[in-house]
Amino acid sequence: MGLDAELERLLAGASRLEKHPLARLISLVEQERDETRPRKAALFRHLAAHPETFPRRAAVIGVTGTPGSGKSSLIGRLALELLGSDAALRVAVLAIDPSSAVSGGALLGDRLRTHFPVGERRIFFRSQATQGDLGGVGRRTFAATRLLRHLFDLVFIETVGIGQSEIEVTQLSDTVVLVMQPLAGDHVQFLKAGVMEIPDVFVVNKCDEAALARRAAHELRSALAYAKIGGPGDDSEHRVFLTSAVTGRGVPELAAFLRTSTQPEDPDTQRRHELHFLRKAVAERYGRFGLDEVERAASSWPAGDATVYEEREAAVLEAIRARVR
To answer: pTM of whole model > 0.70?
Structure first.
C-alpha cells in the first residue's frame, strides 16, 4: 500500500512545518486501531524510502523530574535559546500530561508555562495524555517520536513526573535530563529509587539565589560521588547544570551542551527500542484479552458455588490457552 492522496498532502505540509498537517499526522500515528495500521505502515515506509527529503536526523532529549521542578518552563527557555542560536534549527516538544478522569484527554498544564513566538514554524508543541500508562510515556509517544525524528533536529519529551516506575523515557531518548529543585531532598529519594543511575545530565533548576544554588549543587555532586555514578573517566560534575527559567541562568550553557553532545540513535539502539514497545504492545493487547476471559468466566459462576480459587484459575487459564491455539 502506497500513500493515498490525503497522506501525500499532509506530509507535504508537514515537511514545510505547517502546524495543522503535522498535528493531523501525529493523530494518525497515535491511533492503535487495526484498520489504521496499513496507512501508518505506508507513511513510515515512505519516510524511510526518501531519506533525502525526510532524513532521520532528530536527536531526542527526554526531560524528567519531580512535579514542580520547572521542567516545562525550562524546556521553553531551552527551545528559544536553541532557536536563537541557529536560524536553521527545528525543535519539537512533546509534553506528556496527566489524563483527565472525565474526558480521558490531556490536562494541558504545560501550555500555561510554555510560551513560544506566534507564527514560528521551527517550533512545534504537542500535548499527550498518559492514559494511565505506568511508565510515564507509552506507545503513542513512541509513534509520535518516530514521526518527529524525520522532520526536526531536536525533539524534547517531557514526562509527567518521575517515580520508581516512570523511567520509560530512556527507551525513547538519546539523552535523558533529570531536573530537580534546590534543597528539596530529591537526590536522596532518587538514590533510594535507583533513578540517579538513569540520567545523562543533571539539572538543578530554580537556582535564582546564588548561595542556595551552590549548596544544592554540592549536595547533588556529593550524592553522585557517594553512589559512584559514572564510569572511569566520566566526570559527573561536567553533567551537572544550575539553571533558572526565570533569569535564564545556565540556560545557554545547558542548551549548548545538549546540542553538541546528543546524537540520534544508531540502528542497533533503534531496533532495541522498537522491540521494547513491540513487547509492550503484545502484553497490553493480550492482557486485555485475558481479562475479557476472566469476566466471561465470572459471569457464569453461580451464587454459592463451592469451586475453590485454584479450580477457577485453572479453568480460566485453560480457556485462554484453547482460544489462542
So the answer is: yes
